[in-house]
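Batch job 17 of 40 flagged for manual review because the log was empty.
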Amino acid sequence: MASYFKIFSLPRKSIVMKTIYTLFIVCFFNSFYLSAQTFIQKADFPGGIRWQGQQFTLGDKIYICGGVDTTDFLSDMWEYNTLTDSWTKKSDLPTKKVLGTATEFGGVAFLGLGWDGTKSLNDWWQYDNNNDSWVQKADFPGTPRYDAAAITWKNDIYILMGSDYDTGTATVYPFNDIWKYTPSTDTWVWTDTFPDIPRYGGFEFVVGDKLYYGFGQNDAIETWYSDTYTYDLVNHIWTKLASVPFTPCEAAGSTCYSGIFNNKIVLLNTDWNADEPDDYHNIYVYDIDTDIWTIYNKANPISWRLFGYGGTIGNKGYNGIGYDYEFDIWYKDFWEIDLAKVVTAIENQFPEYSNIKLNSTTRNIHVELPEKLQDHSQFLIQTIDGKELKQYALGNVTDIDITIFPVGAYVWSIKNNGALIKSGKIIRM
Protein backbone atom coordinates (compact mmCIF):
# COMPACT_ATOMS: atom_id res chain seq x y z
CA MET A 1 0.00 0.00 0.00
CA ALA A 2 1.03 3.58 -0.47
CA SER A 3 2.44 5.38 2.55
CA TYR A 4 -0.67 7.58 2.48
CA PHE A 5 -2.65 4.68 3.88
CA LYS A 6 -0.44 4.27 6.96
CA ILE A 7 -2.95 6.23 8.98
CA PHE A 8 -5.58 3.58 8.39
CA SER A 9 -3.74 0.30 8.26
CA LEU A 10 0.04 0.29 8.27
CA PRO A 11 1.64 0.24 11.72
CA ARG A 12 4.94 1.99 12.20
CA LYS A 13 7.83 -0.11 13.54
CA SER A 14 7.79 -0.07 17.36
CA ILE A 15 10.70 1.50 19.22
CA VAL A 16 11.51 1.17 22.91
CA MET A 17 10.37 4.30 24.75
CA LYS A 18 13.58 4.42 26.78
CA THR A 19 15.50 4.94 23.54
CA ILE A 20 13.18 7.74 22.50
CA TYR A 21 13.47 9.45 25.89
CA THR A 22 17.26 9.31 25.77
CA LEU A 23 17.21 10.65 22.23
CA PHE A 24 14.94 13.52 23.28
CA ILE A 25 17.35 14.59 26.02
CA VAL A 26 20.31 14.47 23.63
CA CYS A 27 18.42 16.39 20.94
CA PHE A 28 17.25 19.01 23.42
CA PHE A 29 20.75 19.97 24.52
CA ASN A 30 22.30 19.69 21.05
CA SER A 31 19.64 21.87 19.44
CA PHE A 32 19.22 24.51 22.18
CA TYR A 33 21.66 26.97 20.62
CA LEU A 34 20.28 26.41 17.13
CA SER A 35 16.69 26.84 18.31
CA ALA A 36 17.46 30.11 20.07
CA GLN A 37 19.07 31.49 16.92
CA THR A 38 16.80 30.38 14.13
CA PHE A 39 13.46 28.79 15.21
CA ILE A 40 10.61 30.90 16.59
CA GLN A 41 7.29 29.36 17.60
CA LYS A 42 4.30 31.27 16.24
CA ALA A 43 0.53 31.15 16.85
CA ASP A 44 -0.86 27.61 16.84
CA PHE A 45 -2.96 26.44 13.91
CA PRO A 46 -6.62 27.01 14.97
CA GLY A 47 -8.24 24.42 12.69
CA GLY A 48 -8.79 20.80 13.56
CA ILE A 49 -6.03 18.18 13.65
CA ARG A 50 -4.92 16.96 10.24
CA TRP A 51 -2.15 15.75 7.99
CA GLN A 52 -1.68 15.26 4.25
CA GLY A 53 -3.38 18.59 3.45
CA GLN A 54 -2.65 21.05 0.65
CA GLN A 55 -0.64 24.23 0.99
CA PHE A 56 0.41 27.32 -0.94
CA THR A 57 1.59 30.89 -0.35
CA LEU A 58 0.37 34.20 -1.77
CA GLY A 59 2.39 37.27 -0.90
CA ASP A 60 2.91 37.37 2.87
CA LYS A 61 0.18 34.82 3.53
CA ILE A 62 0.20 31.03 3.92
CA TYR A 63 -2.79 28.81 3.12
CA ILE A 64 -3.42 25.37 4.60
CA CYS A 65 -6.44 23.42 3.43
CA GLY A 66 -8.04 20.00 3.40
CA GLY A 67 -6.26 16.91 4.65
CA VAL A 68 -7.57 14.15 6.89
CA ASP A 69 -7.92 13.75 10.65
CA THR A 70 -8.41 10.42 12.41
CA THR A 71 -11.36 9.47 10.22
CA ASP A 72 -12.69 12.31 8.06
CA PHE A 73 -11.49 14.02 4.90
CA LEU A 74 -11.54 17.78 5.22
CA SER A 75 -12.17 20.80 2.99
CA ASP A 76 -11.69 23.80 5.30
CA MET A 77 -8.99 26.37 4.49
CA TRP A 78 -7.06 28.67 6.80
CA GLU A 79 -4.96 31.73 6.02
CA TYR A 80 -1.90 32.62 8.11
CA ASN A 81 -0.69 36.22 7.97
CA THR A 82 3.07 36.15 8.57
CA LEU A 83 3.12 39.90 9.34
CA THR A 84 0.51 39.79 12.12
CA ASP A 85 1.01 36.17 13.31
CA SER A 86 -2.73 35.55 12.97
CA TRP A 87 -5.02 32.95 11.39
CA THR A 88 -8.26 33.56 9.47
CA LYS A 89 -10.83 31.04 8.22
CA LYS A 90 -11.33 31.29 4.43
CA SER A 91 -13.60 29.67 1.83
CA ASP A 92 -13.56 25.89 1.81
CA LEU A 93 -11.97 23.87 -0.95
CA PRO A 94 -14.49 22.92 -3.64
CA THR A 95 -13.74 19.24 -2.95
CA LYS A 96 -12.48 17.29 0.06
CA LYS A 97 -9.06 15.85 -0.61
CA VAL A 98 -5.63 14.91 0.67
CA LEU A 99 -2.19 15.00 -0.98
CA GLY A 100 -3.32 17.46 -3.62
CA THR A 101 -0.97 19.67 -5.62
CA ALA A 102 -0.82 23.46 -5.36
CA THR A 103 1.37 26.34 -6.49
CA GLU A 104 1.28 30.12 -6.85
CA PHE A 105 1.23 31.82 -10.24
CA GLY A 106 0.81 35.51 -10.98
CA GLY A 107 -0.61 36.39 -7.58
CA VAL A 108 -3.23 33.63 -7.52
CA ALA A 109 -3.05 29.94 -6.58
CA PHE A 110 -3.77 26.83 -8.60
CA LEU A 111 -4.75 23.65 -6.77
CA GLY A 112 -6.01 20.23 -7.72
CA LEU A 113 -5.44 16.48 -8.06
CA GLY A 114 -5.21 14.47 -4.81
CA TRP A 115 -7.22 11.65 -3.25
CA ASP A 116 -10.79 11.79 -1.92
CA GLY A 117 -10.84 8.55 0.06
CA THR A 118 -11.95 6.28 -2.78
CA LYS A 119 -10.16 7.50 -5.90
CA SER A 120 -7.48 9.78 -7.30
CA LEU A 121 -8.58 13.14 -8.70
CA ASN A 122 -7.82 15.22 -11.80
CA ASP A 123 -9.69 18.46 -10.95
CA TRP A 124 -7.92 21.82 -11.24
CA TRP A 125 -8.95 25.09 -9.56
CA GLN A 126 -7.83 28.71 -9.34
CA TYR A 127 -8.03 30.58 -6.02
CA ASP A 128 -8.03 34.38 -5.79
CA ASN A 129 -7.43 35.63 -2.25
CA ASN A 130 -8.60 39.15 -3.13
CA ASN A 131 -12.20 37.94 -3.28
CA ASP A 132 -11.70 34.59 -1.49
CA SER A 133 -13.15 32.62 -4.40
CA TRP A 134 -12.51 29.42 -6.33
CA VAL A 135 -12.94 29.06 -10.10
CA GLN A 136 -12.80 25.66 -11.81
CA LYS A 137 -10.28 25.36 -14.64
CA ALA A 138 -9.55 22.68 -17.26
CA ASP A 139 -9.12 19.23 -15.73
CA PHE A 140 -5.68 17.68 -15.66
CA PRO A 141 -5.60 15.41 -18.75
CA GLY A 142 -3.12 12.84 -17.44
CA THR A 143 -4.02 9.89 -15.24
CA PRO A 144 -5.63 11.12 -11.99
CA ARG A 145 -3.08 11.12 -9.17
CA TYR A 146 -2.07 12.26 -5.70
CA ASP A 147 1.19 13.54 -4.17
CA ALA A 148 2.48 15.05 -7.42
CA ALA A 149 5.09 17.81 -7.42
CA ALA A 150 4.44 21.28 -8.84
CA ILE A 151 6.66 24.19 -9.83
CA THR A 152 6.11 27.54 -11.53
CA TRP A 153 8.56 28.71 -14.19
CA LYS A 154 8.10 31.74 -16.41
CA ASN A 155 4.64 31.51 -18.02
CA ASP A 156 3.76 27.95 -17.02
CA ILE A 157 3.12 25.49 -14.21
CA TYR A 158 4.73 22.04 -14.32
CA ILE A 159 3.24 18.95 -12.68
CA LEU A 160 5.66 16.08 -12.06
CA MET A 161 5.20 12.44 -11.14
CA GLY A 162 2.63 11.45 -8.49
CA SER A 163 0.80 8.18 -7.91
CA ASP A 164 -2.54 6.45 -8.32
CA TYR A 165 -4.00 3.69 -6.15
CA ASP A 166 -6.44 0.91 -7.04
CA THR A 167 -8.47 0.13 -3.94
CA GLY A 168 -9.85 -3.06 -5.48
CA THR A 169 -6.45 -4.66 -6.03
CA ALA A 170 -4.53 -2.61 -3.42
CA THR A 171 -2.04 -1.71 -6.16
CA VAL A 172 0.04 1.46 -6.34
CA TYR A 173 0.78 3.04 -9.75
CA PRO A 174 3.51 5.73 -9.55
CA PHE A 175 4.18 7.99 -12.55
CA ASN A 176 7.21 9.58 -14.19
CA ASP A 177 5.46 11.90 -16.64
CA ILE A 178 5.70 15.70 -16.66
CA TRP A 179 2.88 18.00 -17.75
CA LYS A 180 2.81 21.72 -18.47
CA TYR A 181 -0.17 23.94 -17.69
CA THR A 182 -0.42 27.42 -19.21
CA PRO A 183 -2.74 29.63 -17.10
CA SER A 184 -3.20 32.27 -19.82
CA THR A 185 -4.84 29.73 -22.14
CA ASP A 186 -6.09 27.24 -19.52
CA THR A 187 -4.44 24.41 -21.46
CA TRP A 188 -2.38 21.33 -20.65
CA VAL A 189 0.31 19.53 -22.64
CA TRP A 190 2.56 16.56 -21.90
CA THR A 191 6.15 17.79 -21.96
CA ASP A 192 8.69 15.20 -20.78
CA THR A 193 9.49 12.11 -18.72
CA PHE A 194 11.54 11.69 -15.56
CA PRO A 195 14.50 9.45 -16.51
CA ASP A 196 14.49 7.18 -13.47
CA ILE A 197 11.99 4.90 -11.72
CA PRO A 198 8.53 6.51 -11.28
CA ARG A 199 7.92 7.96 -7.83
CA TYR A 200 6.01 10.50 -5.77
CA GLY A 201 6.38 12.53 -2.58
CA GLY A 202 9.77 14.13 -3.25
CA PHE A 203 10.88 17.74 -2.87
CA GLU A 204 11.14 20.28 -5.69
CA PHE A 205 12.67 23.73 -6.23
CA VAL A 206 13.42 26.05 -9.13
CA VAL A 207 16.70 27.97 -9.15
CA GLY A 208 17.07 30.11 -12.24
CA ASP A 209 16.25 27.91 -15.23
CA LYS A 210 16.77 24.63 -13.37
CA LEU A 211 14.40 22.39 -11.47
CA TYR A 212 15.78 20.41 -8.52
CA TYR A 213 13.86 17.27 -7.64
CA GLY A 214 14.88 14.76 -5.00
CA PHE A 215 13.94 11.72 -2.94
CA GLY A 216 10.40 10.30 -3.13
CA GLN A 217 9.07 6.77 -2.95
CA ASN A 218 7.59 3.98 -5.02
CA ASP A 219 5.48 1.71 -2.86
CA ALA A 220 4.62 -0.45 -5.85
CA ILE A 221 8.11 -1.93 -5.42
CA GLU A 222 8.44 -0.92 -1.75
CA THR A 223 11.37 1.41 -2.48
CA TRP A 224 12.21 4.85 -1.12
CA TYR A 225 14.82 7.07 -2.75
CA SER A 226 17.66 9.35 -1.66
CA ASP A 227 18.80 10.58 -5.07
CA THR A 228 18.54 14.13 -6.41
CA TYR A 229 18.24 15.39 -9.99
CA THR A 230 18.36 18.68 -11.80
CA TYR A 231 16.30 19.39 -14.91
CA ASP A 232 17.29 22.09 -17.40
CA LEU A 233 13.93 23.70 -18.16
CA VAL A 234 15.29 25.38 -21.30
CA ASN A 235 17.04 22.42 -22.94
CA HIS A 236 14.99 19.62 -21.28
CA ILE A 237 18.02 17.74 -19.95
CA TRP A 238 18.07 15.70 -16.71
CA THR A 239 21.30 15.37 -14.69
CA LYS A 240 21.76 13.14 -11.67
CA LEU A 241 23.35 14.88 -8.66
CA ALA A 242 24.84 13.68 -5.39
CA SER A 243 22.73 11.30 -3.30
CA VAL A 244 22.39 10.74 0.41
CA PRO A 245 23.87 7.22 0.60
CA PHE A 246 21.74 4.25 1.47
CA THR A 247 22.42 2.78 4.92
CA PRO A 248 20.40 0.42 7.12
CA CYS A 249 18.67 3.37 8.78
CA GLU A 250 18.60 5.86 5.91
CA ALA A 251 16.50 4.43 3.13
CA ALA A 252 15.34 7.83 1.83
CA GLY A 253 11.86 9.15 1.24
CA SER A 254 9.97 12.34 2.03
CA THR A 255 10.32 15.51 4.08
CA CYS A 256 7.90 17.65 6.06
CA TYR A 257 9.88 20.81 5.35
CA SER A 258 12.18 21.74 2.50
CA GLY A 259 13.46 25.27 2.00
CA ILE A 260 16.15 26.98 -0.04
CA PHE A 261 18.36 29.96 0.69
CA ASN A 262 21.62 31.14 -0.89
CA ASN A 263 21.79 28.06 -3.15
CA LYS A 264 21.48 25.65 -0.23
CA ILE A 265 18.52 23.30 0.12
CA VAL A 266 17.53 22.63 3.74
CA LEU A 267 15.46 19.57 4.73
CA LEU A 268 13.77 19.10 8.12
CA ASN A 269 11.58 16.38 9.60
CA THR A 270 12.55 13.71 7.11
CA ASP A 271 10.71 10.40 7.00
CA TRP A 272 13.40 7.92 6.00
CA ASN A 273 11.25 4.83 6.61
CA ALA A 274 13.86 3.90 9.20
CA ASP A 275 14.20 1.78 12.30
CA GLU A 276 16.40 4.41 13.94
CA PRO A 277 14.58 7.55 15.16
CA ASP A 278 17.82 9.55 15.07
CA ASP A 279 17.30 10.34 11.40
CA TYR A 280 14.10 12.25 12.11
CA HIS A 281 16.04 14.85 14.10
CA ASN A 282 18.77 15.51 11.56
CA ILE A 283 19.02 18.57 9.31
CA TYR A 284 20.07 17.79 5.72
CA VAL A 285 21.71 20.58 3.70
CA TYR A 286 22.48 20.28 0.00
CA ASP A 287 24.93 22.80 -1.47
CA ILE A 288 23.98 23.37 -5.10
CA ASP A 289 27.34 24.98 -5.90
CA THR A 290 29.46 22.04 -4.65
CA ASP A 291 26.98 19.15 -5.19
CA ILE A 292 27.61 17.99 -1.60
CA TRP A 293 25.22 16.98 1.18
CA THR A 294 26.03 17.76 4.82
CA ILE A 295 24.06 15.98 7.52
CA TYR A 296 23.83 17.70 10.91
CA ASN A 297 22.89 14.96 13.34
CA LYS A 298 20.27 15.67 16.03
CA ALA A 299 20.19 19.39 15.18
CA ASN A 300 16.46 19.82 14.48
CA PRO A 301 14.64 21.26 17.53
CA ILE A 302 11.13 20.81 16.08
CA SER A 303 9.36 17.58 17.03
CA TRP A 304 9.27 15.10 14.16
CA ARG A 305 6.03 14.77 12.23
CA LEU A 306 4.95 13.89 8.70
CA PHE A 307 2.67 15.56 6.13
CA GLY A 308 2.45 18.82 8.03
CA TYR A 309 3.05 22.24 6.52
CA GLY A 310 6.38 23.25 5.05
CA GLY A 311 6.86 26.37 2.94
CA THR A 312 8.97 29.44 2.36
CA ILE A 313 8.31 33.18 2.01
CA GLY A 314 11.38 35.22 1.22
CA ASN A 315 14.13 34.31 3.70
CA LYS A 316 11.73 32.72 6.17
CA GLY A 317 10.64 29.11 6.26
CA TYR A 318 7.50 27.86 8.02
CA ASN A 319 6.91 24.39 9.43
CA GLY A 320 4.18 22.93 11.60
CA ILE A 321 1.09 20.81 12.27
CA GLY A 322 1.19 17.20 10.98
CA TYR A 323 1.15 13.77 12.61
CA ASP A 324 3.64 11.48 14.33
CA TYR A 325 2.21 8.05 13.57
CA GLU A 326 4.95 6.35 15.60
CA PHE A 327 3.39 7.55 18.85
CA ASP A 328 -0.01 8.80 17.65
CA ILE A 329 0.73 12.49 18.32
CA TRP A 330 -1.11 15.23 16.43
CA TYR A 331 0.53 18.66 16.23
CA LYS A 332 -0.97 22.14 15.87
CA ASP A 333 2.23 24.11 16.51
CA PHE A 334 3.64 26.44 13.85
CA TRP A 335 7.25 27.62 13.53
CA GLU A 336 9.13 30.33 11.69
CA ILE A 337 12.63 29.41 10.50
CA ASP A 338 15.15 32.11 9.67
CA LEU A 339 16.78 30.58 6.60
CA ALA A 340 19.27 33.44 6.41
CA LYS A 341 20.64 32.27 9.76
CA VAL A 342 19.93 28.56 9.96
CA VAL A 343 22.83 27.37 7.79
CA THR A 344 25.27 29.71 9.53
CA ALA A 345 23.97 28.59 12.93
CA ILE A 346 24.41 24.89 12.26
CA GLU A 347 27.81 25.47 10.69
CA ASN A 348 28.83 27.31 13.87
CA GLN A 349 27.42 24.48 15.99
CA PHE A 350 29.32 21.88 13.92
CA PRO A 351 32.47 23.77 12.80
CA GLU A 352 34.42 20.57 12.19
CA TYR A 353 32.09 19.65 9.30
CA SER A 354 33.04 22.82 7.43
CA ASN A 355 36.75 22.13 8.01
CA ILE A 356 36.72 18.84 6.11
CA LYS A 357 38.85 19.26 2.99
CA LEU A 358 38.15 16.99 0.04
CA ASN A 359 39.69 17.23 -3.41
CA SER A 360 39.03 14.68 -6.11
CA THR A 361 40.25 13.93 -9.60
CA THR A 362 39.23 11.18 -11.98
CA ARG A 363 41.88 8.95 -10.35
CA ASN A 364 42.31 10.05 -6.73
CA ILE A 365 40.46 11.44 -3.69
CA HIS A 366 42.39 13.47 -1.13
CA VAL A 367 40.73 13.87 2.31
CA GLU A 368 41.93 16.00 5.22
CA LEU A 369 40.04 15.85 8.53
CA PRO A 370 40.11 18.32 11.43
CA GLU A 371 41.44 16.90 14.67
CA LYS A 372 38.01 16.40 16.24
CA LEU A 373 36.98 13.97 13.47
CA GLN A 374 40.21 12.01 13.11
CA ASP A 375 39.07 9.22 15.43
CA HIS A 376 36.37 6.77 14.32
CA SER A 377 35.84 8.23 10.84
CA GLN A 378 35.34 6.22 7.66
CA PHE A 379 35.19 7.02 3.98
CA LEU A 380 32.75 4.90 1.93
CA ILE A 381 32.30 4.46 -1.79
CA GLN A 382 29.00 3.17 -3.14
CA THR A 383 27.47 2.61 -6.52
CA ILE A 384 24.85 5.13 -7.63
CA ASP A 385 22.11 2.67 -6.67
CA GLY A 386 23.45 2.19 -3.12
CA LYS A 387 25.69 -0.90 -3.19
CA GLU A 388 28.70 -0.40 -0.90
CA LEU A 389 31.97 -1.15 -2.68
CA LYS A 390 34.71 -0.24 -0.24
CA GLN A 391 35.28 1.39 3.16
CA TYR A 392 38.44 3.20 4.29
CA ALA A 393 39.56 4.31 7.75
CA LEU A 394 40.31 8.04 7.78
CA GLY A 395 43.08 9.82 9.61
CA ASN A 396 44.55 13.30 9.39
CA VAL A 397 45.31 12.96 5.68
CA THR A 398 44.08 10.12 3.50
CA ASP A 399 44.60 9.53 -0.22
CA ILE A 400 42.26 7.09 -1.93
CA ASP A 401 43.03 5.49 -5.27
CA ILE A 402 39.82 5.17 -7.28
CA THR A 403 41.41 3.58 -10.34
CA ILE A 404 40.51 0.20 -8.81
CA PHE A 405 36.86 0.93 -9.73
CA PRO A 406 35.37 0.68 -13.23
CA VAL A 407 34.72 3.87 -15.18
CA GLY A 408 31.49 5.52 -14.06
CA ALA A 409 29.77 7.62 -11.37
CA TYR A 410 29.90 6.78 -7.65
CA VAL A 411 28.60 8.14 -4.35
CA TRP A 412 31.11 8.92 -1.60
CA SER A 413 30.30 9.51 2.05
CA ILE A 414 32.05 10.24 5.32
CA LYS A 415 30.88 8.79 8.62
CA ASN A 416 31.99 9.63 12.14
CA ASN A 417 31.12 7.26 14.97
CA GLY A 418 28.72 5.57 12.58
CA ALA A 419 26.78 8.77 11.75
CA LEU A 420 26.67 10.03 8.18
CA ILE A 421 28.00 13.62 7.98
CA LYS A 422 28.98 14.28 4.33
CA SER A 423 28.21 12.82 0.92
CA GLY A 424 28.75 13.70 -2.71
CA LYS A 425 29.38 12.28 -6.17
CA ILE A 426 32.61 11.34 -7.98
CA ILE A 427 33.26 10.42 -11.59
CA ARG A 428 35.85 7.74 -12.41
CA MET A 429 37.04 8.25 -16.00
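Reviewer: the log was empty due to a logging misconfiguration, but the result itself is present. The helical segments are 17-38, 339-349, 351-354. Unflagging and moving on to job 18.
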